[in-house]
Specification:
Strand content: 25-35%
Distance between the termini: 18 Å
CATH class of the largest domain: Alpha Beta
Largest sheet: 7 strands, mixed
Radius of gyration: 20 Å
Order of helices and strands: EHEHEEEEEHEHEHEEEEEHEEEH
CATH superfamily of the largest domain: FAD/NAD(P)-binding domain
Number of helices: 7
Helix content: 25-40%
CATH architecture of the largest domain: 3-Layer(bba) Sandwich
Number of domains: 2
Number of strands: 17
Protein backbone atom coordinates (compact mmCIF):
# COMPACT_ATOMS: atom_id res chain seq x y z
CA UNK A 1 0.00 0.00 0.00
CA UNK A 2 1.20 3.48 -0.87
CA UNK A 3 0.68 5.97 1.95
CA UNK A 4 0.55 9.71 1.56
CA UNK A 5 2.67 10.29 4.66
CA UNK A 6 4.66 8.03 6.96
CA UNK A 7 5.57 9.29 10.41
CA UNK A 8 8.36 7.73 12.45
CA UNK A 9 7.66 7.97 16.16
CA UNK A 10 4.53 8.11 18.31
CA UNK A 11 5.60 10.77 20.79
CA UNK A 12 4.06 14.26 20.97
CA UNK A 13 5.63 15.49 17.71
CA UNK A 14 4.67 12.45 15.67
CA UNK A 15 1.14 12.20 17.08
CA UNK A 16 0.45 15.92 16.59
CA UNK A 17 1.68 15.72 12.99
CA UNK A 18 -0.65 12.78 12.37
CA UNK A 19 -3.65 14.70 13.75
CA UNK A 20 -3.11 17.29 11.02
CA UNK A 21 -2.38 14.80 8.22
CA UNK A 22 -5.34 12.57 9.06
CA UNK A 23 -7.78 15.50 9.23
CA UNK A 24 -6.46 16.61 5.83
CA UNK A 25 -7.52 13.22 4.45
CA UNK A 26 -3.93 12.06 4.01
CA UNK A 27 -3.47 8.28 4.25
CA UNK A 28 -1.09 8.18 7.22
CA UNK A 29 1.04 5.46 8.79
CA UNK A 30 2.90 5.77 12.08
CA UNK A 31 5.81 3.39 12.62
CA UNK A 32 7.21 3.25 16.14
CA UNK A 33 9.30 0.97 18.31
CA UNK A 34 8.24 1.60 21.89
CA UNK A 35 8.02 4.93 23.67
CA UNK A 36 10.58 7.61 24.35
CA UNK A 37 11.75 9.03 27.65
CA UNK A 38 8.45 10.87 28.20
CA UNK A 39 6.85 7.56 29.20
CA UNK A 40 8.90 7.62 32.41
CA UNK A 41 7.74 11.10 33.48
CA UNK A 42 5.79 10.72 36.72
CA UNK A 43 3.93 14.03 36.48
CA UNK A 44 3.40 16.66 33.79
CA UNK A 45 2.08 19.92 35.20
CA UNK A 46 3.35 22.61 32.81
CA UNK A 47 1.32 21.76 29.71
CA UNK A 48 -1.65 23.81 28.49
CA UNK A 49 -5.15 22.54 29.35
CA UNK A 50 -4.27 20.10 32.13
CA UNK A 51 -6.27 20.95 35.28
CA UNK A 52 -4.49 18.17 37.15
CA UNK A 53 -1.04 16.54 36.79
CA UNK A 54 -0.87 13.65 34.33
CA UNK A 55 1.79 11.00 33.85
CA UNK A 56 3.83 10.88 30.67
CA UNK A 57 2.55 7.40 29.96
CA UNK A 58 -1.08 8.50 30.20
CA UNK A 59 -0.47 11.51 27.97
CA UNK A 60 1.19 9.33 25.34
CA UNK A 61 -1.59 6.74 25.35
CA UNK A 62 -4.23 9.46 25.10
CA UNK A 63 -2.47 10.82 22.02
CA UNK A 64 -2.41 7.43 20.32
CA UNK A 65 -6.12 6.88 21.00
CA UNK A 66 -6.90 10.31 19.60
CA UNK A 67 -5.11 9.74 16.30
CA UNK A 68 -6.33 6.14 15.93
CA UNK A 69 -9.88 7.46 16.12
CA UNK A 70 -9.10 9.45 12.97
CA UNK A 71 -8.05 6.33 11.07
CA UNK A 72 -4.26 6.56 11.28
CA UNK A 73 -2.55 3.18 10.81
CA UNK A 74 -0.01 2.02 13.40
CA UNK A 75 2.82 -0.48 13.11
CA UNK A 76 5.09 -1.46 16.00
CA UNK A 77 8.40 -2.26 14.34
CA UNK A 78 12.00 -1.14 14.26
CA UNK A 79 13.09 1.09 11.39
CA UNK A 80 16.50 0.13 10.04
CA UNK A 81 16.78 2.12 6.80
CA UNK A 82 15.12 4.78 4.64
CA UNK A 83 15.46 4.91 0.86
CA UNK A 84 14.20 7.01 -1.99
CA UNK A 85 14.12 10.49 -3.44
CA UNK A 86 11.04 10.46 -5.71
CA UNK A 87 9.04 8.42 -3.20
CA UNK A 88 10.19 7.34 0.22
CA UNK A 89 10.62 3.73 1.29
CA UNK A 90 10.88 2.89 4.98
CA UNK A 91 12.47 -0.48 5.72
CA UNK A 92 11.77 -2.15 9.04
CA UNK A 93 12.81 -5.51 10.39
CA UNK A 94 9.57 -7.04 9.17
CA UNK A 95 8.49 -5.08 6.13
CA UNK A 96 8.77 -2.23 3.65
CA UNK A 97 6.41 0.74 3.40
CA UNK A 98 6.14 3.45 0.74
CA UNK A 99 4.84 7.01 0.93
CA UNK A 100 4.94 10.35 -0.87
CA UNK A 101 6.48 12.06 2.18
CA UNK A 102 8.10 11.21 5.51
CA UNK A 103 8.17 12.93 8.90
CA UNK A 104 10.95 11.85 11.26
CA UNK A 105 9.86 12.36 14.87
CA UNK A 106 11.77 9.62 16.65
CA UNK A 107 13.22 11.81 19.37
CA UNK A 108 16.69 12.82 20.50
CA UNK A 109 19.77 10.78 19.79
CA UNK A 110 20.60 8.35 22.57
CA UNK A 111 23.62 8.71 24.78
CA UNK A 112 26.58 6.97 23.23
CA UNK A 113 27.89 3.77 24.74
CA UNK A 114 30.75 4.61 27.08
CA UNK A 115 33.92 2.79 26.02
CA UNK A 116 37.36 4.33 26.29
CA UNK A 117 38.71 5.30 22.88
CA UNK A 118 35.40 4.98 21.02
CA UNK A 119 34.92 8.71 20.45
CA UNK A 120 38.60 9.18 19.68
CA UNK A 121 38.40 6.90 16.64
CA UNK A 122 35.10 8.12 15.20
CA UNK A 123 35.78 8.67 11.51
CA UNK A 124 39.07 6.83 11.92
CA UNK A 125 37.76 3.29 11.74
CA UNK A 126 34.71 3.70 13.99
CA UNK A 127 31.50 4.21 11.99
CA UNK A 128 27.79 4.48 12.74
CA UNK A 129 26.52 3.70 9.23
CA UNK A 130 27.07 0.40 7.42
CA UNK A 131 25.35 1.65 4.26
CA UNK A 132 27.56 4.76 4.19
CA UNK A 133 30.95 3.22 4.93
CA UNK A 134 30.77 -0.52 4.22
CA UNK A 135 32.31 -0.04 0.76
CA UNK A 136 35.60 1.12 2.30
CA UNK A 137 36.08 -2.19 4.14
CA UNK A 138 36.04 -4.71 1.31
CA UNK A 139 37.72 -7.95 2.42
CA UNK A 140 38.61 -6.38 5.76
CA UNK A 141 38.13 -7.67 9.31
CA UNK A 142 35.17 -5.92 10.91
CA UNK A 143 33.50 -5.69 14.30
CA UNK A 144 29.90 -4.71 15.04
CA UNK A 145 29.11 -3.29 18.48
CA UNK A 146 25.61 -4.17 19.66
CA UNK A 147 23.25 -6.91 20.69
CA UNK A 148 19.78 -6.12 19.30
CA UNK A 149 17.88 -6.43 16.01
CA UNK A 150 19.40 -3.25 14.62
CA UNK A 151 22.85 -4.76 15.18
CA UNK A 152 21.89 -7.79 13.09
CA UNK A 153 20.62 -5.62 10.24
CA UNK A 154 23.80 -3.54 10.15
CA UNK A 155 25.94 -6.69 10.19
CA UNK A 156 23.90 -8.08 7.31
CA UNK A 157 24.45 -4.86 5.35
CA UNK A 158 28.20 -5.48 5.61
CA UNK A 159 28.13 -9.09 4.36
CA UNK A 160 28.52 -8.12 0.66
CA UNK A 161 31.85 -6.49 1.52
CA UNK A 162 33.48 -9.05 3.81
CA UNK A 163 32.97 -12.46 5.35
CA UNK A 164 35.04 -11.63 8.44
CA UNK A 165 32.51 -10.04 10.78
CA UNK A 166 32.41 -10.36 14.57
CA UNK A 167 29.58 -9.08 16.76
CA UNK A 168 30.70 -7.62 20.10
CA UNK A 169 27.80 -7.46 22.59
CA UNK A 170 29.83 -5.61 25.26
CA UNK A 171 28.69 -7.90 28.07
CA UNK A 172 25.07 -8.20 26.94
CA UNK A 173 23.16 -11.29 25.92
CA UNK A 174 21.68 -11.17 22.43
CA UNK A 175 18.19 -9.64 22.38
CA UNK A 176 17.19 -10.45 18.82
CA UNK A 177 14.12 -11.78 17.08
CA UNK A 178 14.39 -15.10 15.29
CA UNK A 179 14.40 -13.25 11.97
CA UNK A 180 17.29 -11.05 13.07
CA UNK A 181 19.28 -14.05 14.29
CA UNK A 182 18.99 -15.61 10.84
CA UNK A 183 20.70 -12.53 9.38
CA UNK A 184 23.83 -13.17 11.43
CA UNK A 185 24.07 -16.94 11.07
CA UNK A 186 27.72 -17.96 10.82
CA UNK A 187 29.06 -14.73 12.30
CA UNK A 188 31.30 -14.81 15.34
CA UNK A 189 29.90 -13.43 18.59
CA UNK A 190 32.02 -12.11 21.48
CA UNK A 191 30.11 -11.37 24.68
CA UNK A 192 32.92 -10.03 26.89
CA UNK A 193 32.84 -6.34 27.79
CA UNK A 194 35.16 -4.03 25.91
CA UNK A 195 37.53 -2.03 28.09
CA UNK A 196 39.12 0.11 25.39
CA UNK A 197 39.20 0.73 21.64
CA UNK A 198 42.81 0.91 20.50
CA UNK A 199 44.86 2.05 17.53
CA UNK A 200 47.36 4.68 16.42
CA UNK A 201 46.15 6.95 13.62
CA UNK A 202 43.25 4.59 12.88
CA UNK A 203 41.50 1.91 14.89
CA UNK A 204 43.24 -1.46 15.09
CA UNK A 205 41.20 -3.39 17.64
CA UNK A 206 40.09 -3.51 21.24
CA UNK A 207 41.08 -4.74 24.67
CA UNK A 208 38.43 -6.83 26.39
CA UNK A 209 37.66 -6.81 30.10
CA UNK A 210 39.50 -10.12 30.49
CA UNK A 211 42.63 -8.37 29.08
CA UNK A 212 42.44 -10.31 25.83
CA UNK A 213 43.21 -8.25 22.74
CA UNK A 214 41.12 -8.52 19.58
CA UNK A 215 41.93 -6.96 16.21
CA UNK A 216 39.74 -5.48 13.50
CA UNK A 217 40.11 -2.96 10.66
CA UNK A 218 36.85 -1.21 11.43
CA UNK A 219 34.18 -1.10 14.12
CA UNK A 220 30.54 -0.32 13.30
CA UNK A 221 28.37 0.85 16.19
CA UNK A 222 24.73 -0.31 16.16
CA UNK A 223 24.19 -0.63 19.87
CA UNK A 224 20.42 -0.47 20.32
CA UNK A 225 17.85 0.95 17.89
CA UNK A 226 18.60 3.43 15.13
CA UNK A 227 18.17 7.00 16.34
CA UNK A 228 16.82 9.81 14.20
CA UNK A 229 20.33 11.11 13.58
CA UNK A 230 21.59 7.67 12.53
CA UNK A 231 18.75 7.26 10.06
CA UNK A 232 19.40 10.79 8.82
CA UNK A 233 23.05 9.94 8.27
CA UNK A 234 22.10 6.95 6.12
CA UNK A 235 19.83 9.15 3.99
CA UNK A 236 22.32 11.98 3.58
CA UNK A 237 20.31 14.47 5.61
CA UNK A 238 22.17 17.49 6.93
CA UNK A 239 23.06 17.25 10.61
CA UNK A 240 24.24 19.78 13.18
CA UNK A 241 26.12 17.53 15.58
CA UNK A 242 23.38 14.95 16.31
CA UNK A 243 20.36 17.09 15.40
CA UNK A 244 18.61 17.01 12.02
CA UNK A 245 18.74 20.40 10.30
CA UNK A 246 15.38 21.80 9.15
CA UNK A 247 14.10 25.13 7.81
CA UNK A 248 11.13 27.12 9.12
CA UNK A 249 8.76 24.65 7.43
CA UNK A 250 10.55 21.74 9.13
CA UNK A 251 11.81 20.53 5.75
CA UNK A 252 15.15 18.77 5.63
CA UNK A 253 17.62 19.14 2.76
CA UNK A 254 15.76 16.31 0.99
CA UNK A 255 12.42 17.82 -0.14
CA UNK A 256 10.10 14.91 0.74
CA UNK A 257 11.51 14.40 4.24
CA UNK A 258 10.48 16.51 7.23
CA UNK A 259 11.57 16.30 10.88
CA UNK A 260 10.09 17.46 14.17
CA UNK A 261 10.55 17.17 17.92
CA UNK A 262 13.65 16.34 19.92
CA UNK A 263 15.50 14.95 16.88
CA UNK A 264 15.93 18.51 15.54
CA UNK A 265 17.33 19.82 18.83
CA UNK A 266 16.20 22.77 20.91
CA UNK A 267 14.02 22.99 24.01
CA UNK A 268 13.06 19.45 25.07
CA UNK A 269 9.50 20.02 26.21
CA UNK A 270 6.15 18.51 25.21
CA UNK A 271 4.81 21.91 24.17
CA UNK A 272 7.70 22.50 21.78
CA UNK A 273 7.40 19.00 20.29
CA UNK A 274 3.67 19.46 19.71
CA UNK A 275 4.29 22.76 17.94
CA UNK A 276 6.99 21.19 15.78
CA UNK A 277 4.67 18.34 14.85
CA UNK A 278 1.87 20.70 13.84
CA UNK A 279 4.08 22.68 11.47
CA UNK A 280 5.79 19.58 10.06
CA UNK A 281 2.40 17.97 9.47
CA UNK A 282 1.03 21.06 7.72
CA UNK A 283 4.15 21.34 5.54
CA UNK A 284 4.01 17.66 4.60
CA UNK A 285 0.33 18.03 3.62
CA UNK A 286 1.16 20.93 1.32
CA UNK A 287 4.04 19.00 -0.21
CA UNK A 288 1.93 15.92 -0.96
CA UNK A 289 -0.95 17.96 -2.38
CA UNK A 290 1.37 19.81 -4.74
CA UNK A 291 3.06 16.57 -5.71
CA UNK A 292 -0.23 14.89 -6.57
CA UNK A 293 -1.26 17.84 -8.76
CA UNK A 294 1.77 17.16 -10.94
CA UNK A 295 1.33 13.39 -11.23
Amino acid sequence: MMYDIIILGKGPAGIQASLYTARANMKTLIIANGWGSLEKAEKIENYYGLPHPISGEELLHNGVKQTQALGVDFIEDEVVAINGYEEVEVITLHGKYQAHALIIAIGAARKKVRIDGLTKFEGKGVSYCAVCDGFFYRDKKLGILGYKDYTAHEAYELKPFTNDITIYTNGNELEMSSKAKKLIEGMKIVKEKISEIIGTDIVSGAILENDNKVTFDGLFVAYESASGSELALKMGLELDKQSIVVNDKFETNIPLIFAAGDCIGGFKQVSKAVGDGAIAGKSAIEFVRNKKKNL
